[in-house]
Amino acid sequence: MLELLFSALITIVPDYLYRRYKQGKRWGHELTLFNIWYELRWGLTACAILAISLITVIFYFHPSTRNVSAPFRTVTILSDRPGRVAEVYVANNETVEAGDPIFRMDTTRQEAAVETAQRRMEEIDAALGLIATEIAGATAQLETAEADLRQATDDLNRRVALAERNDTVVSEQELERLQTAVSRADGQRTAALAVLDGAKLRQTTLLPAQRESARAVLREAENEIAKSTIFAEVDGTVTQFLLKPGDIINPILRPAGILVPETTGQGRFVAAFGQISASVVKTGMLVEITCASKPLVVIPMVVDEVQGAIAAGQFRPGDALLDQQDRARPGTVTVFLSPIFPEHVEGIPRGSSCVGVAYTSRAEEIESGKITGMSAFVARIVDGMGIANAIVLRAQAILLPVKVLVFS
Fold it and tell me: What is the pTM of this model?
Protein backbone atom coordinates (compact mmCIF):
# COMPACT_ATOMS: atom_id res chain seq x y z
CA MET A 1 0.00 0.00 0.00
CA LEU A 2 2.82 2.43 0.82
CA GLU A 3 4.51 1.69 -2.47
CA LEU A 4 1.25 2.22 -4.34
CA LEU A 5 0.58 5.56 -2.63
CA PHE A 6 4.11 6.76 -3.36
CA SER A 7 3.83 5.71 -7.00
CA ALA A 8 0.47 7.45 -7.37
CA LEU A 9 1.87 10.71 -5.99
CA ILE A 10 4.45 11.00 -8.77
CA THR A 11 2.39 9.50 -11.64
CA ILE A 12 -1.40 9.71 -11.34
CA VAL A 13 -1.52 12.97 -9.37
CA PRO A 14 0.64 14.97 -11.84
CA ASP A 15 -1.35 13.51 -14.74
CA TYR A 16 -4.62 14.52 -13.10
CA LEU A 17 -3.34 18.01 -12.29
CA TYR A 18 -2.30 18.45 -15.92
CA ARG A 19 -5.73 17.37 -17.15
CA ARG A 20 -7.54 19.50 -14.60
CA TYR A 21 -5.66 22.79 -14.66
CA LYS A 22 -3.81 22.72 -18.00
CA GLN A 23 -6.55 21.22 -20.16
CA GLY A 24 -9.45 22.47 -18.01
CA LYS A 25 -11.14 19.09 -17.67
CA ARG A 26 -13.46 18.71 -14.69
CA TRP A 27 -14.79 15.76 -12.65
CA GLY A 28 -18.24 14.79 -13.70
CA HIS A 29 -17.92 16.58 -17.04
CA GLU A 30 -14.83 15.78 -19.14
CA LEU A 31 -13.51 13.35 -16.46
CA THR A 32 -16.00 10.60 -15.67
CA LEU A 33 -15.82 7.00 -14.50
CA PHE A 34 -16.33 5.89 -18.06
CA ASN A 35 -13.37 7.73 -19.58
CA ILE A 36 -11.01 7.86 -16.58
CA TRP A 37 -8.73 5.20 -18.04
CA TYR A 38 -8.39 7.00 -21.34
CA GLU A 39 -7.84 10.40 -19.81
CA LEU A 40 -5.35 9.22 -17.16
CA ARG A 41 -3.86 6.30 -19.10
CA TRP A 42 -0.31 7.64 -18.89
CA GLY A 43 -0.47 8.20 -15.15
CA LEU A 44 -2.19 4.87 -14.44
CA THR A 45 0.24 2.92 -16.60
CA ALA A 46 3.28 4.64 -15.08
CA CYS A 47 1.85 4.13 -11.57
CA ALA A 48 1.36 0.41 -12.15
CA ILE A 49 4.85 -0.04 -13.59
CA LEU A 50 6.48 2.01 -10.84
CA ALA A 51 4.52 0.32 -8.02
CA ILE A 52 5.40 -3.16 -9.27
CA SER A 53 9.03 -2.16 -9.68
CA LEU A 54 9.20 -0.65 -6.19
CA ILE A 55 7.55 -3.66 -4.57
CA THR A 56 9.93 -6.00 -6.41
CA VAL A 57 13.02 -4.02 -5.42
CA ILE A 58 11.94 -3.59 -1.80
CA PHE A 59 11.01 -7.22 -1.22
CA TYR A 60 14.11 -8.48 -3.02
CA PHE A 61 16.72 -6.32 -1.27
CA HIS A 62 14.81 -6.15 2.03
CA PRO A 63 13.26 -9.63 2.36
CA SER A 64 10.67 -10.37 5.02
CA THR A 65 9.65 -13.63 6.64
CA ARG A 66 6.88 -14.87 8.89
CA ASN A 67 8.93 -17.88 9.99
CA VAL A 68 11.18 -16.73 12.81
CA SER A 69 11.38 -18.70 16.02
CA ALA A 70 13.54 -19.16 19.09
CA PRO A 71 14.50 -22.85 18.93
CA PHE A 72 15.85 -24.81 21.84
CA ARG A 73 17.28 -28.26 22.37
CA THR A 74 15.59 -30.96 24.40
CA VAL A 75 17.19 -34.00 26.00
CA THR A 76 15.14 -37.18 26.12
CA ILE A 77 15.27 -38.90 29.48
CA LEU A 78 16.06 -42.53 28.68
CA SER A 79 17.45 -45.58 30.37
CA ASP A 80 20.06 -47.84 28.79
CA ARG A 81 17.83 -50.88 29.11
CA PRO A 82 14.15 -51.67 29.43
CA GLY A 83 12.85 -52.42 32.87
CA ARG A 84 10.57 -51.47 35.71
CA VAL A 85 10.91 -48.22 37.67
CA ALA A 86 11.80 -48.78 41.31
CA GLU A 87 12.09 -45.21 42.61
CA VAL A 88 11.41 -41.68 41.32
CA TYR A 89 13.38 -38.72 42.73
CA VAL A 90 11.94 -35.67 40.92
CA ALA A 91 8.51 -34.37 39.94
CA ASN A 92 7.20 -32.92 36.69
CA ASN A 93 8.35 -29.34 35.89
CA GLU A 94 11.02 -29.56 38.57
CA THR A 95 14.38 -27.87 38.00
CA VAL A 96 17.40 -30.17 38.26
CA GLU A 97 21.15 -29.67 38.13
CA ALA A 98 23.69 -31.76 36.28
CA GLY A 99 24.33 -34.94 38.26
CA ASP A 100 21.02 -34.99 40.12
CA PRO A 101 19.29 -38.42 40.10
CA ILE A 102 15.97 -38.54 38.26
CA PHE A 103 14.77 -42.12 38.75
CA ARG A 104 16.11 -45.60 39.44
CA MET A 105 15.35 -48.87 37.68
CA ASP A 106 14.70 -52.17 39.46
CA THR A 107 18.00 -54.04 39.99
CA THR A 108 16.86 -57.36 41.49
CA ARG A 109 18.27 -59.40 38.62
CA GLN A 110 21.56 -57.47 38.60
CA GLU A 111 21.96 -57.84 42.36
CA ALA A 112 21.48 -61.61 41.99
CA ALA A 113 24.15 -61.61 39.27
CA VAL A 114 26.51 -59.74 41.62
CA GLU A 115 25.88 -62.29 44.37
CA THR A 116 26.51 -65.17 41.94
CA ALA A 117 29.76 -63.62 40.69
CA GLN A 118 31.00 -63.03 44.23
CA ARG A 119 30.26 -66.62 45.22
CA ARG A 120 32.03 -67.84 42.10
CA MET A 121 35.11 -65.81 43.00
CA GLU A 122 35.08 -67.24 46.53
CA GLU A 123 34.82 -70.72 45.05
CA ILE A 124 37.81 -70.08 42.79
CA ASP A 125 39.81 -68.63 45.69
CA ALA A 126 39.11 -71.84 47.64
CA ALA A 127 40.20 -73.89 44.64
CA LEU A 128 43.42 -71.88 44.47
CA GLY A 129 44.06 -72.76 48.12
CA LEU A 130 43.31 -76.41 47.49
CA ILE A 131 45.49 -76.67 44.41
CA ALA A 132 48.63 -76.30 46.53
CA THR A 133 47.73 -79.54 48.32
CA GLU A 134 47.12 -81.23 44.96
CA ILE A 135 50.52 -80.05 43.72
CA ALA A 136 52.21 -81.41 46.87
CA GLY A 137 50.48 -84.79 46.40
CA ALA A 138 51.37 -84.90 42.71
CA THR A 139 54.99 -84.05 43.59
CA ALA A 140 55.11 -86.91 46.11
CA GLN A 141 53.63 -89.31 43.54
CA LEU A 142 56.25 -88.19 41.03
CA GLU A 143 59.08 -88.75 43.52
CA THR A 144 57.70 -92.22 44.33
CA ALA A 145 57.42 -93.05 40.62
CA GLU A 146 60.99 -91.87 40.04
CA ALA A 147 62.22 -93.99 42.96
CA ASP A 148 60.39 -97.06 41.60
CA LEU A 149 61.86 -96.35 38.17
CA ARG A 150 65.37 -96.13 39.60
CA GLN A 151 64.86 -99.32 41.58
CA ALA A 152 63.53 -101.21 38.57
CA THR A 153 66.33 -99.86 36.38
CA ASP A 154 68.98 -100.91 38.90
CA ASP A 155 67.52 -104.43 39.18
CA LEU A 156 67.45 -104.74 35.42
CA ASN A 157 71.03 -103.53 35.05
CA ARG A 158 72.30 -106.02 37.70
CA ARG A 159 70.52 -108.93 36.06
CA VAL A 160 71.80 -107.94 32.64
CA ALA A 161 75.36 -107.76 34.02
CA LEU A 162 75.01 -111.23 35.57
CA ALA A 163 73.58 -112.60 32.35
CA GLU A 164 76.54 -111.27 30.40
CA ARG A 165 78.96 -113.12 32.75
CA ASN A 166 76.91 -116.30 33.00
CA ASP A 167 73.77 -116.67 30.95
CA THR A 168 72.65 -119.70 32.98
CA VAL A 169 72.20 -117.66 36.14
CA VAL A 170 69.48 -115.34 34.81
CA SER A 171 66.67 -116.69 32.72
CA GLU A 172 65.22 -114.97 29.71
CA GLN A 173 61.79 -114.69 31.39
CA GLU A 174 63.25 -112.84 34.37
CA LEU A 175 64.90 -110.27 32.11
CA GLU A 176 61.63 -109.70 30.31
CA ARG A 177 59.85 -109.29 33.66
CA LEU A 178 62.40 -106.72 34.82
CA GLN A 179 62.18 -104.87 31.49
CA THR A 180 58.39 -104.76 31.91
CA ALA A 181 58.79 -103.45 35.47
CA VAL A 182 61.06 -100.65 34.17
CA SER A 183 58.55 -99.73 31.48
CA ARG A 184 55.69 -99.75 34.01
CA ALA A 185 57.71 -97.58 36.43
CA ASP A 186 58.56 -95.16 33.60
CA GLY A 187 54.88 -94.95 32.66
CA GLN A 188 53.92 -94.25 36.26
CA ARG A 189 56.57 -91.52 36.39
CA THR A 190 55.20 -89.97 33.18
CA ALA A 191 51.65 -90.08 34.55
CA ALA A 192 52.75 -88.50 37.84
CA LEU A 193 54.61 -85.78 35.93
CA ALA A 194 51.49 -85.09 33.83
CA VAL A 195 49.37 -84.83 36.98
CA LEU A 196 51.88 -82.38 38.49
CA ASP A 197 52.02 -80.28 35.30
CA GLY A 198 48.21 -80.24 35.13
CA ALA A 199 47.94 -79.09 38.73
CA LYS A 200 50.52 -76.34 38.14
CA LEU A 201 48.70 -75.26 34.95
CA ARG A 202 45.44 -75.03 36.87
CA GLN A 203 47.21 -72.98 39.53
CA THR A 204 48.93 -70.55 37.16
CA THR A 205 46.49 -70.32 34.21
CA LEU A 206 43.07 -71.95 34.51
CA LEU A 207 41.95 -70.82 37.94
CA PRO A 208 43.28 -67.22 37.52
CA ALA A 209 41.48 -67.01 34.16
CA GLN A 210 38.27 -68.28 35.75
CA ARG A 211 38.70 -65.75 38.56
CA GLU A 212 39.16 -62.91 36.06
CA SER A 213 36.06 -64.09 34.18
CA ALA A 214 34.09 -64.07 37.42
CA ARG A 215 35.50 -60.62 38.21
CA ALA A 216 34.40 -59.38 34.76
CA VAL A 217 30.89 -60.74 35.35
CA LEU A 218 30.89 -59.01 38.73
CA ARG A 219 31.99 -55.68 37.20
CA GLU A 220 29.35 -55.99 34.49
CA ALA A 221 26.62 -56.61 37.05
CA GLU A 222 27.84 -53.73 39.21
CA ASN A 223 27.94 -51.48 36.13
CA GLU A 224 24.35 -52.44 35.32
CA ILE A 225 23.37 -51.51 38.87
CA ALA A 226 25.21 -48.18 38.57
CA LYS A 227 23.49 -47.43 35.24
CA SER A 228 20.10 -48.25 36.69
CA THR A 229 20.01 -44.77 38.24
CA ILE A 230 19.37 -42.11 35.59
CA PHE A 231 21.06 -38.76 36.25
CA ALA A 232 20.53 -35.33 34.70
CA GLU A 233 23.33 -34.58 32.24
CA VAL A 234 22.75 -30.81 32.18
CA ASP A 235 20.99 -28.16 34.22
CA GLY A 236 17.38 -27.82 33.12
CA THR A 237 13.70 -28.45 33.75
CA VAL A 238 12.07 -31.86 33.64
CA THR A 239 8.88 -31.78 31.57
CA GLN A 240 6.32 -34.37 30.47
CA PHE A 241 7.59 -36.51 33.32
CA LEU A 242 4.85 -38.58 34.92
CA LEU A 243 6.77 -41.67 36.02
CA LYS A 244 5.59 -43.70 38.98
CA PRO A 245 7.24 -46.68 40.69
CA GLY A 246 6.23 -49.83 38.86
CA ASP A 247 6.03 -48.24 35.39
CA ILE A 248 7.75 -50.05 32.52
CA ILE A 249 10.42 -48.05 30.66
CA ASN A 250 11.68 -48.90 27.18
CA PRO A 251 14.44 -46.80 25.56
CA ILE A 252 12.85 -47.27 22.12
CA LEU A 253 9.10 -47.32 22.68
CA ARG A 254 8.56 -45.40 25.90
CA PRO A 255 10.97 -42.69 27.10
CA ALA A 256 10.58 -41.36 30.62
CA GLY A 257 10.27 -37.65 29.80
CA ILE A 258 12.06 -34.62 28.40
CA LEU A 259 14.73 -32.41 29.95
CA VAL A 260 14.85 -28.83 28.67
CA PRO A 261 18.35 -27.37 29.26
CA GLU A 262 18.49 -23.94 30.82
CA THR A 263 20.93 -22.25 28.46
CA THR A 264 20.53 -24.08 25.16
CA GLY A 265 19.28 -21.76 22.43
CA GLN A 266 18.98 -18.77 24.76
CA GLY A 267 18.95 -15.55 22.72
CA ARG A 268 19.46 -17.26 19.36
CA PHE A 269 16.74 -17.19 16.71
CA VAL A 270 16.28 -19.04 13.44
CA ALA A 271 14.60 -17.43 10.42
CA ALA A 272 13.50 -18.95 7.12
CA PHE A 273 13.73 -16.72 4.03
CA GLY A 274 12.62 -17.59 0.53
CA GLN A 275 15.16 -19.07 -1.84
CA ILE A 276 15.05 -15.93 -4.00
CA SER A 277 16.71 -14.11 -1.08
CA ALA A 278 19.68 -16.50 -0.96
CA SER A 279 21.94 -14.07 -2.82
CA VAL A 280 20.89 -11.12 -0.63
CA VAL A 281 20.92 -12.48 2.91
CA LYS A 282 24.49 -12.34 4.19
CA THR A 283 26.28 -12.66 7.51
CA GLY A 284 26.24 -9.38 9.42
CA MET A 285 22.97 -8.21 7.85
CA LEU A 286 20.60 -6.22 10.08
CA VAL A 287 17.25 -7.86 10.86
CA GLU A 288 14.31 -6.62 12.91
CA ILE A 289 11.78 -9.00 14.45
CA THR A 290 8.65 -8.77 16.53
CA CYS A 291 7.22 -11.72 18.45
CA ALA A 292 3.71 -12.62 19.52
CA SER A 293 5.00 -13.42 23.01
CA LYS A 294 6.35 -9.87 23.36
CA PRO A 295 4.05 -7.59 21.36
CA LEU A 296 4.59 -3.90 20.63
CA VAL A 297 8.36 -4.46 20.72
CA VAL A 298 10.70 -4.46 17.72
CA ILE A 299 13.96 -6.26 18.43
CA PRO A 300 17.09 -5.55 16.32
CA MET A 301 19.03 -8.64 15.35
CA VAL A 302 22.06 -9.41 13.22
CA VAL A 303 22.58 -12.37 10.89
CA ASP A 304 25.06 -14.55 12.71
CA GLU A 305 25.20 -17.44 10.25
CA VAL A 306 23.58 -18.55 6.99
CA GLN A 307 23.08 -22.28 6.52
CA GLY A 308 24.75 -23.40 3.33
CA ALA A 309 22.20 -26.11 2.51
CA ILE A 310 18.46 -26.03 1.93
CA ALA A 311 16.72 -28.74 3.94
CA ALA A 312 14.21 -29.57 1.18
CA GLY A 313 17.04 -30.98 -0.96
CA GLN A 314 18.01 -33.75 1.42
CA PHE A 315 17.17 -37.35 0.62
CA ARG A 316 17.52 -40.73 2.23
CA PRO A 317 18.31 -43.86 0.17
CA GLY A 318 15.32 -46.15 -0.17
CA ASP A 319 13.92 -48.87 -2.40
CA ALA A 320 12.54 -46.42 -4.99
CA LEU A 321 14.19 -43.83 -7.22
CA LEU A 322 13.67 -40.26 -6.11
CA ASP A 323 11.60 -38.11 -8.48
CA GLN A 324 12.29 -34.41 -8.04
CA GLN A 325 8.72 -33.40 -8.88
CA ASP A 326 7.48 -35.30 -5.83
CA ARG A 327 8.96 -32.64 -3.57
CA ALA A 328 5.98 -30.55 -2.52
CA ARG A 329 7.85 -27.58 -1.03
CA PRO A 330 10.88 -25.80 -2.50
CA GLY A 331 12.39 -25.15 0.92
CA THR A 332 13.81 -22.00 2.47
CA VAL A 333 17.17 -20.48 3.35
CA THR A 334 17.84 -21.02 7.05
CA VAL A 335 19.42 -18.05 8.82
CA PHE A 336 20.63 -17.86 12.43
CA LEU A 337 20.11 -14.56 14.22
CA SER A 338 21.70 -13.08 17.32
CA PRO A 339 20.35 -10.07 19.23
CA ILE A 340 22.30 -6.84 19.06
CA PHE A 341 21.10 -6.03 22.58
CA PRO A 342 20.70 -9.32 24.52
CA GLU A 343 18.50 -7.68 27.15
CA HIS A 344 15.82 -7.09 24.49
CA VAL A 345 15.11 -10.82 24.15
CA GLU A 346 14.56 -11.31 27.87
CA GLY A 347 11.02 -12.41 28.55
CA ILE A 348 10.60 -14.15 25.18
CA PRO A 349 9.89 -17.84 25.84
CA ARG A 350 11.93 -20.30 23.84
CA GLY A 351 9.96 -21.56 20.86
CA SER A 352 8.15 -18.24 20.31
CA SER A 353 6.89 -17.49 16.80
CA CYS A 354 7.99 -14.16 15.29
CA VAL A 355 8.06 -12.20 12.04
CA GLY A 356 11.06 -10.35 10.73
CA VAL A 357 12.49 -8.09 8.05
CA ALA A 358 16.08 -8.04 6.81
CA TYR A 359 17.67 -4.84 5.52
CA THR A 360 20.32 -4.65 2.82
CA SER A 361 23.00 -2.07 3.55
CA ARG A 362 25.91 -1.26 1.25
CA ALA A 363 27.15 1.74 3.20
CA GLU A 364 30.51 0.11 3.89
CA GLU A 365 31.08 -0.64 0.20
CA ILE A 366 30.19 2.92 -0.71
CA GLU A 367 32.44 4.41 1.96
CA SER A 368 35.34 2.13 1.02
CA GLY A 369 34.99 3.04 -2.66
CA LYS A 370 33.91 -0.38 -3.93
CA ILE A 371 30.67 1.17 -5.20
CA THR A 372 30.98 4.63 -6.76
CA GLY A 373 29.17 7.03 -9.04
CA MET A 374 25.70 6.24 -10.27
CA SER A 375 25.86 2.76 -8.76
CA ALA A 376 26.44 4.27 -5.32
CA PHE A 377 23.53 6.68 -5.81
CA VAL A 378 21.18 3.83 -6.80
CA ALA A 379 22.48 1.67 -3.94
CA ARG A 380 21.66 4.39 -1.40
CA ILE A 381 18.15 4.73 -2.84
CA VAL A 382 17.60 0.96 -2.69
CA ASP A 383 18.93 0.78 0.86
CA GLY A 384 16.64 3.62 1.86
CA MET A 385 13.61 1.77 0.50
CA GLY A 386 13.86 -0.56 3.49
CA ILE A 387 11.95 2.07 5.46
CA ALA A 388 8.78 0.79 3.81
CA ASN A 389 9.23 -2.70 5.30
CA ALA A 390 10.28 -1.14 8.61
CA ILE A 391 6.98 0.78 8.73
CA VAL A 392 5.05 -2.37 7.86
CA LEU A 393 6.82 -4.34 10.61
CA ARG A 394 5.99 -1.71 13.20
CA ALA A 395 2.41 -1.65 12.02
CA GLN A 396 2.30 -5.43 12.49
CA ALA A 397 3.73 -5.06 16.00
CA ILE A 398 1.01 -2.53 16.85
CA LEU A 399 -1.89 -4.40 15.25
CA LEU A 400 -0.85 -7.88 16.44
CA PRO A 401 -2.61 -7.65 19.85
CA VAL A 402 -5.74 -6.28 18.20
CA LYS A 403 -5.70 -8.98 15.55
CA VAL A 404 -5.15 -11.81 18.02
CA LEU A 405 -7.35 -10.63 20.88
CA VAL A 406 -10.23 -9.06 18.97
CA PHE A 407 -10.53 -10.26 15.38
CA SER A 408 -9.46 -13.85 16.01
Answer: 0.66
